[in-house]
TrEMBL record:
Name of the protein in question: Calcineurin B homologous protein 1
SMART domains: EFh (SM00054)
GO cellular component terms listed in the entry, alphabetical order: cytoplasm; nucleus; plasma membrane
Organism of provenance: Toxocara canis
EF-hand domain location: 77-112, 118-153
Keywords assigned: Calcium, Cell membrane, Cytoplasm, Lipoprotein, Membrane, Metal-binding, Myristate, Nucleus, Phosphoprotein, Protein transport, Repeat, Transport
Residue ranges that the Swiss-Prot or TrEMBL entry lists as coiled coil: none
PROSITE patterns, sorted: EF_HAND_1, EF_HAND_2
GO MF annotation list: calcium ion binding
Protein location: Cell membrane; Cytoplasm; Nucleus
GO BP, sorted A to Z: protein transport
Length: 177
């Protein structure tokens, strides 16, 4: 069992984690995508109180593991990873990624390193290339169809999020050992 999960749960004695518990993790608190990462832990829960147990915690972490080419229905299969990545970009959860949504996430990831004009150009080009039906937005189906074309972006996306799970001293934030 990940030590940090145990420590966070045992400190409170509650047996679950809520949003505030995640925000106490320094790497998430200072991460520009920290809120999106924390949101990912609560998207599949039916709990209106926004708390997760250990099983739910581990299920979300599985999205960050290397691709499982074995069982088709595993949490870290290609399809599940694509669904997870899509939800990170679909900020308003309407089933589409708009240029503005893509630009927000892109800005969070690399905004300080590129000019606003470059950011606009990347967002425009990405939406244009991925929008197969020319409706100005990317559906999940389009996202999946063009995922091979954007392997570098996909790889960067998962590497970036995976790196968010490590502290500066190389330890997992979810495993202090």
């Amino acid at each position: 069992m990940p030590l940090s999960f145990c420590l966070l749960v045992n400190v409170s004695g509650r047996g679950f984690l809520d949003r505030d518990d995640f925000l106490r993790i320094p790497e998430l608190a200072i991460n520009p995508l920290g809120d999106r990462i924390v949101d990912a832990f609560f998207t599949e829960t039916d709990d209106t109180e926004q708390k997760i147990n250990f099983r739910e915690f581990i299920r979300v972490l599985a999205h960050f593991r290397p691709l499982n080419k074995g069982k088709e229905n595993t949490v870290n299969s290609r399809d599940e990873k694509l669904k997870f990545a899509f939800t990170m970009y679909d900020l308003n959860k309407n089933g589409y990624i708009t240029r503005d949504e893509f630009k927000v996430i892109l800005n969070m990831m690399v905004g300080a390193n590129i000019t606003p004009e470059q950011l606009d150009s990347i967002a425009d080009r990405t939406i244009t290339e991925a929008d197969l039906d020319n409706d100005g937005k990317i559906s999940f189906d389009e996202f999946c169809r063009v995922s091979f074309s954007f392997q570098i972006l996909s790889r960067y996306f998962f590497q970036y999020f995976y790196s968010c799970l490590y502290s500066s001293n190389g330890q997992h934030w979810f495993n202090a050992g």
